[in-house]
C-alpha cells in the first residue's frame, strides 16, 4: 500500500535581529568628582567632545544599517549623540527611558563626601536594596532602562540602533542581559564614550552581549560566535 508523503512546508523566517550599540556620555567637568545625576546645564568638556567625535567615527562604519540614534534628554548625552547622528546623516531622537538615575538629594554632591556616608556601602555592595534619598532606586532604574531598550530594539528589526545613556543605566542593563544580580552590577566598568554592543534576537527574547566598555576596536566586525 502506497504511503502519502506530505510536502514539507517552508518555515516562515522570523523577524531579523537587532544590534544595539549603547554609548555612555562623554566626559564633563564633573566626571569623577561629583554625582551629577539629572542636573541641568552640564555640558561636555573639551576631552568629552573629542571622545564623542571618536565614537562617531567608529560607529559611522555601520552606515545606513543604523536605523536611529536615541539619546537621554540631558545636555551631555545629546552632545555625545550629536556627532554620531551627524556622521550617519541622522537626527537625534530623545528617549526619556535612557535617563541617568535620579539621585535625589545626592545630586551634585562630591563623590569624596558621599564615600564617607554609611549608605555608600549599600550603593556598592547591596544596590538592589538601596533608594537614593528623595530619588530613584537602582531596581527602578534597571526596570526603566530595560523597558526602554526593549521598545527601541523591537521598533527596528534587522537594523542597528544607537542609544546614548549613562554609566549606571548601561551597567544595570548589561547585568540584566547577562543574568547577573543587580548587587553585582558595580563590578561592570563603563567608561566615558565607550560602546557596549548587544545582539538581540528578532523576537526580542534573546540577547547576546558582544562587548562591554569598548573604546578602541572596529565595531563592525562584532558578531555572535
Write a structural description:
The protein has a single domain, classed as Rossmann fold, CATH 3.40.50.1240. It is globular. It has 225 residues and is an alpha/beta fold. The model has no long low-confidence stretch (mean pLDDT 92). The longest helix is centred in the middle third of the chain and has 18 residues. A six-stranded mixed beta sheet has the order 3-2-4-1-5-6, with helices on both faces. The chain has six helices and six strands. 30% of the residues lie in helices and 16% in strands.
Topology:
Elements: E1 18-24, H1 46-59, E2 66-71, H2 75-88, E3 92-94, H3 111-114, H4 120-125, H5 138-155, E4 160-165, H6 167-177, E5 195-200, E6 207-214
Parallel strand pairs: 1-4, 2-3, 2-4
Antiparallel strand pairs: 1-5, 5-6
Helix pairs in contact: 1-2, 5-6
CATH topology: Rossmann fold
Query: Largest beta sheet: what is the strand line-up?
Result: 3-2-4-1-5-6
- Nearest-integer average pLDDT: 92
Helix and strand run? EHEHEHHHEHEE
Query: Radius of gyration over alpha carbons?
Result: 20 Å
Kindly report the name of the CATH homologous superfamily.
Phosphoglycerate mutase-like
Continuous helix count: 6
Strand residue content: 15-25%
CATH class: Alpha Beta
- Which spans have pLDDT < 50 for at least 5 consecutive residues? none
Précis, in short:
By secondary structure, this protein is an alpha/beta fold. It has helices spanning 46-59, 75-88, 111-114, 120-125, 138-155, 167-177, and strands at residues 18-24, 66-71, 92-94, 160-165, 195-200, 207-214.
